[in-house]
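Troubleshooting: if your tokenizer reports a length mismatch, compare your output against this known-good record of 88 residues.
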Amino acid sequence: MPFPSGATLLLYTDGLNEARNRAGDFYDPAAGLAGVEFAEPDALLDTLLTKVNRHTADRITDDLALLAVTRTPAAPRGGTHGLVPGER
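Known-good structure output:
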């Protein structure tokens, strides 16, 4: 599956999509994040945790693991290898 530069991959356990509100409705992460863009993976995870906690009234009863990874552009060949200009 392609993973283009700038794309973010979100991995999560069933504790996220099986989190229920008081009415017994499951949390839907796709609907909760639809149309939202994030500058970095931490912002995605912070937003997601806020939304699922709001959905469950801060009563998450299952274990929950989240991992977000953003693919950054590769350094040009013969480039600085991650150095800031002026560093050696």
